[in-house]
Design a protein that fits this description.
Blueprint (H helix, E strand, L loop, with lengths): L2 E5 L2 E4 L4 E8 L9 E7 L6 E6 L6 E2 L8 E6 L4 E6 L8 E8 L13 E2 L3 E6 L1
Parallel strand pairs: 2-11
Antiparallel strand pairs: 1-3, 3-8, 4-5, 4-9, 5-6, 7-8, 9-10, 9-11
């Protein structure tokens, strides 16, 4: 069984920064062999792709909405993926989820991911 646990969410003013973390665990889960991603979902909206990173950390992908503001990274020694969020805007308010994909390099659709965390709330005030 695979567990993904997000942390680091909270309330921040517009223009501020937050760093999300996602710790992975599982008896037979090899974190260093899977792509990792971050998604977000605001009330009444569909789940939206935010960032993904390849198993070795050499390739990343972002949508235009966060490119230049968000940075995904991973530490395979700690089985942890991070999302550094800068210049936050009220539109970034959502529940943020991390996910793991056994296939693909930097997937950008929810269906490509096999395991999901419970999410952490990020609220950006204006």
């Amino acid at each position: 069984q695979v567990q993904l646990v997000e942390s680091g969410g909270g309330l921040v003013q517009a223009g501020g920064s937050l760093r999300l973390s996602c710790a992975a665990s599982g008896r037979t889960f090899r974190f260093s062999s899977v792509a990792m991603g971050w998604f977000r979902q605001a009330p009444g909206k569909e789940r939206e792709f935010v960032a993904s990173i390849s198993w070795g950390g050499f390739t990343t992908r972002y949508p235009d909405s966060v490119k230049g503001r968000f940075t995904i990274s991973r530490d395979n020694a700690k089985d942890t993926v991070y999302l550094q969020m800068n210049s936050l805007k009220p539109d970034d308010t959502a529940v943020y989820y991390c996910a793991a994909a056994r296939g693909g390099i930097v997937p950008d659709v929810p269906n490509a991911y096999d395991y999901w965390g419970q999410g952490t709330q990020v609220t950006v005030s204006s």
